[in-house]
Design brief:
The structure is a single chain. The chain is α/β, with parallel strands linked by helices. The chain is built from 5 helices and 11 strands, in the order E-H-E-E-E-E-E-H-H-E-H-E-E-E-E-H. The protein starts with a strand and ends with a helix.
Length: about 180
């Protein structure tokens, strides 16, 4: 039986990256739930496509035991996060990342995922693939120039164009 992933998607989310995870999980029979990092389940891609998430990030709280991985689907994460850093959904996101990390669960994502994991304080000693613009902000972990990196329970890709190099390892870990 496959494991289950909690996919967290910012608003707006990068559809190219999100749809890669959704398709790979669907095609491989991996269960998942999509959680909007927003005050509503209705989010959109950064190209304007409307998406209805299963629930908001608040509904993930206390349910960590149901999931084997947290997948961060990036989008316009950094500018949106910066504009809304104090919003409850962003604080909840960082707390959830911390809870998943404390339980040794898989943390995966592309683009700004490594930066968001860094902001959550969970990257100590981890090698991370990170978007070149976010690379200087990585202080606890080690930012690399690699397209993707798997380091223990951390699965990161440099950006949405490189997510495909990460997804096979992630799928294998979740089968």
């Amino acid at each position: 039986m496959s494991k289950k992933a909690a996919i967290v998607a910012v608003n707006p989310v990068n559809g190219f990256g999100l749809f890669r995870y959704l398709e790979a999980f669907f095609e491989n029979g991996i269960q998942y739930e999509l959680f909007a990092v927003a005050d509503s389940t209705r989010i959109r891609t950064n190209s304007g496509i409307a998406i209805e998430a299963h629930q908001t990030i608040d509904a993930l709280c206390g349910r960590e035991a149901e999931f084997d991985a947290l997948v961060f689907a990036c989008g316009d994460a950094v500018p949106v996060f910066a504009q809304h850093a104090d919003e409850p959904w962003n604080r909840t996101l960082l707390a959830e990342i911390g809870r998943f990390a404390a339980q040794g669960k898989i943390l995966a994502g592309h683009c700004a995922a490594a930066l968001i994991f860094e902001l959550a304080g969970v990257t100590e000693g981890k090698r991370l693939a990170v978007h070149p613009l976010a690379k200087p902000a990585i202080a606890r972990g080690t930012a690399t120039d690699e397209r993707s990196v798997v380091d223990g329970n951390f699965y990161t890709a440099r950006d949405e164009s490189d997510a495909w190099t990460l997804i096979p390892a992630l799928v294998e870990a979740l089968k």
